[in-house]
Every structure is written in structure tokens, then in C-alpha cells.
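Recap quiz, item 2
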Amino acid sequence: MISLISIIEGLLLIVPALLSVAFVTIAERKTMASMQRRLGPNAVGYYGLLQAFADALKLLLKEYVAPTQANIILFFLGPMITLIFSLLGYLVVPFGSGLFVSDYSLGMLYMLAVSSLATYGILLAGWSANSKYAFLGSLRSTAQLISYELILSSVIVLVILLTGNLNMITIIESQRIVDFLLPLFPLFIIFFIGSIAETNRAPFDLAEAESELVSGFMTEHSASIFVFFFLAEYASIILICVLNSILFLGGYLCIIPVDFLISILNTVFSIDNSILEELFSNVSSSPLNLALKTGLLIFIFIWVRASFPRIRFDQLMSVCWTVLLPLVIAYVVLLPCIVYGLDALPTQILL
Amino acid sequence: MPQDMPPVGGYTSVQYKRNVPARGFKPVYYLVGMHMIMAYGFYKYFHGVREQRELAREKIWSRLYLTPLLQAEEDRDQVRRHLADKAREKELLGTEQKIYNSDRFIRPTYVYTPSKVTQ
Amino acid sequence: MTIHLLNDYCTNGFKIEFVDMIYLVSIFLGILTIVNRNPIVSVLFLIGLFVNVAGLLILVGYNFIGLAYILVYVGAVSILFLFILMLINIRISELLNETNNDIPLAVLTVLLFFYIIGQVLPTNLTDNTIVSTLSNTFSDERNTELHNDFFNLRDLKQQIDYASSHGWDNSLIEPTHIASIGNIMYTSYSMWLIVSSIILLLGMVGAIVITIKQK
């Protein structure tokens, strides 16, 4: 039995991740439908809950078409690379207190490295299709991803400044007193905008601007390899929402301000409940907290998509390089000064 | 055949700009509010780091106090192995021989084969 | 049981055979990088080589350097490389260039390199990689066989254990690599950090000066 643990561990992570991807697609369609006063999918299963599986089955059963002049190996390798690297990021995510696959001391760096590798899939898929639309889409998408990755990693540097460690669990546990949403409020907004752009979502979905490029880098991809791209897109959305909630919203830490409530109880009943508090704060850090936070962020992703019109590509790039990046760099200069001035550098003793 | 040209004097300008009244506060208030939130956050963070340091100090001191005990255990084991080794050597060679040329203490590493391997 | 052991090797353990495998794959990828005619495919093999070397670094324990390798070389530099190559219009005549006639030279250079390096580098007990064994058999110099009861103990592998006196005061804290590097770099060697940052700044300014439009 023990021999299968390494496989079961992986499956326990991958299968729910893929299931959640399926339900996020449904959630997106239903949410956008109710924002536009439609019904949305409601035929398959209760409230259309099984629509995603029906779609996936349809796509898998379809005939795949590959262009004759395409580089076939890269044409199929591209979507696979995208999917694999967007799923690899889940490896270092702590889902609850003590619930993780890998407690890697360089978890954040690993996540950055893996997410930067996912760009290759898009670049290769666009180039290998031997189509101008796909190629232009992939170049746009890659330029966008590289530019916005800069912002994301600079913001992550500031979070690391406050935690003093690259380990994901340490990042979460150092938010027990206050979520980094409060001290890093503007950076959270920048990070969120950056993550919308990083996942190629509306209003930054220039990669698949239907009005100009037919469907962006995946114009020529159909059937099962299209499913790969589709899954990869939503998997990376969920992953980046998880990352947002880990970095700024306290990950799996309890949403209810337990210590505040217990201190009120203490003052009312005048008893010392510190043991109870300790117990409750450990029990309450369940994966449900992370799920709720991530769900909220995914809802905002969908909300943004339903609300804002797509912006032009040059505007997208100039907003990255001339607005967001100088802002982030200003905070990169300012925040270390504040932290040093307060003498509040986190402890460097590695226990 | 006359081409389709713009009318003389050009097209009339399209009014794309909406003239809706400004909503919400002045931008300055948002900026100030954001930095108030940040200030509160850093106030909390400051106290958090103080607590974190105190906990780390406690942990390190507990380890410091534990170190002599563990070291003594280690040394006791080492002495036991050393004496046993000397006894074995005497039994095999008869006399006690030095293998090193100097009197300097060389930290020995004993190789042994445990009877039960738990892996 | 084998699955479990495989998992153990990949995550925690270090097997000298894995290193050998990665060496061979790296050499293979390097040759493919040179031999391939299509520059984009060639760069892809180069990326494979980078990932491979990063994997090697992580396997032998340099986690941070390996990840930084992926982040910097694969994630940033190679993407720009590929990006530019895709935008360049490559003529067919360039693709037809004969590049295969350099292979004997390459093989000769590599063999010579290993012949010399294999003699110079010190060998020790744990050094039983394929490459060093090969170079030792060629050089025949350090190829002293150690037939001894003690060394035969190595065959027992899992069955032996070592007992050495252990200083507990060394294990008070366990800094990660990145923390140790940082501690050294920002204290003792801060001068070199500043110098390298000035060089980087110089490179940046240089790039701006080159691309600026003269009026």
C-alpha cells in the first residue's frame, strides 16, 4: 500500500484541480449569463452543472485538423507544455495547515520559474501552426506575458521582504497577525491587474482578439489539443487566484477574526481562553478558507470580464511599462525604507 | 465616375465623450485612504514582527539550553564506541597501536551494520 | 515497492546514475543544438539543454542556482532569443548550409577535453561515474583498484551506517542556501555586489544609448 502513496498524492492533487477547472468554466458561463440577463447552460445535469463534461466529450470526439505545412511535433507539444506547466504550479500550494504535496523551501521561486515556462507552449503553438493569425497571436501573447511577469515578480519581491522566506507556508503563517492585503494594499491591486493580464483574460485578452485575429495563438488548434489549451487557461486562472490569496489574503488562515472575537469573549466573561484560542486558530485553518478566498477572486475575474471592454494592444503595453512598472518600482524603493525605519525586518532565524 | 469622398469641410465630429457628472470622492481622498489602510497595516505588521521575534528568541534559547544535554549524550556514545573499539583492537592485535603519527585528536567515524534496517 | 523507491530517489535521494543520465542527455542535446539546421528548433534544443542542466543542479543539491537558471536563462533569455529568431526571415539557402562536417572536430575536442580533465581532476571513493571511469581507463593512471574488505562493504549499501561524533551546536539553526548566499553577499562581499550592479547599470545605459535616436 505504501508503494502507491506517491501516485495517490499526485492524483489527489491533479484530479480535484482538473475538476475545479471544469466547474470554473461552468461558473463563468452561468455568472456571465446572469450578468447579461440570460439563462446560460441549463440542459445537461441540474442547472447545467455537467455542461463542462459534455463540452469536453464533444471536443475529444471531434476530428482533429492539423495544417499540412505545420511542424506537427511542436504543434502538439505546445498545448501539452502549456497544460503541464500550468498544473505543475499546484505542487507547492499549501491547501490547509499541514496539507501540501511539497514543503519546498524555495516554493515561490519554483512557482515563478514554472509559470515563466508556460509561455513556451503558447509561443511554440503559434509558431508551429504556420498561420499568420496564430503567429501574431502568440507573439502578442508572449510579449504580454513577459511584460506582466516583470510586475508580478516585483510585487512578489515586496511580499518576500515582509516574510523573509520563499516558502509558501511561511508566507501564509507570517500573515497570522495581519493579512498583507492591508500593508500592501496598492500592490495587491497592481498584482491583481497583473494576474488578469498574465492569464490572458478579458479585458487583456489580446492574444485571442476575435475581432482582429481569428482566435489568437490557438486558431489552428482543434479537438483534443484545443481542450489542452482550454484546461491550461482555466487551470492557470485558478492557480493565480490561489497565489493571490496566498500572498495577500492569508491563504488558508481563517476568515473570521478569531482572536478578536475571543478577546471580546474574554472581556465579557473575564476568563483566560488563550488555550482555546490557540486550538481554534489551528482547527479553523482548513482548506475551506482558501477555497472561499480563491472563489471570490475567480468571481472578480469573471466580473471584470463581463464589465470592461477590451483595450488596445499598445495601450496594454504602455500601461504595463509606463504606469504599473514605475509604480511598483516606486514601492520597491519606498517599502524597504519603511520596513527598515520601523526596524520590522522579519526574523532571519531559520528554525 | 466620382469617387466616394468625404463631404466638403470634412465629417462632423462624433460626440463620443459622455458628460456624466463625477461620481464618488476626489481622487486625493482615495489616495489618502489607501495610505491610511497601509499605515494601519504596517502598524499591525510591526507588532506582528515583534511577536515573531520574541517567539524565535524563545525557540533559540530553548535549543541553546537543550544543547549541552544532547552533546553529553553524544559524547557518552562516542566514548562507549571508543572504548569498545580499543578493546576489540587489543583482542585482535594484542598491543595498543597508534595508526596516526600525531597526538592530535582525530574524530573517528565508526562503521557498523545495524541488525534491523527500517527504511 | 519500486515505485516508492523511485519516488524517494527523485525527491530526496541522490543516485549517481541519474547524474550520468543527465550528462549523457545534455551532451546529446548539445550536439542536436549544433547539428540542427532550423535555428528555432536549434534554440529549442538549447532550451532543453538549459532545463537539463538546471535539473542536474537541483539534483545535486543546488536548488536555488538551479531554479534561478530556469528563471533567468529559460524563462527570460531564451524566450527573447526565440522571439527574435521567429521574427527574422530565414532564407532557405541558409537552412541548406552543411553543418555536419564539424562533427568529427567536435567529437575530437570533447574526447581531448575529457582525456585531460579526467587526469587532472582528483578522484575519490564516491567517484564511480561512467565518464570518470571511461577517462580513467583511457588514461590508465589513477586506475588503482581497491580490493579490500572495507571497500567491499560498499556493496551492502543500505545495510551500513556511520556513527561519528556530532557537534550539536552546529545544528541550532539550519539556514537555506539562499539565506547563506545572501548573508555572505550583503556583508563580506558587498563590494563585489556593488561592482556587479554597476556593470549591469552600465549595460543598461549602453543599450539605451545604442537605441536612442540622434536628432
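The first strand of chain C starts at residue 161 and ends at 164.
DSSP finds ten helices and one strand in chain C.
End of item.
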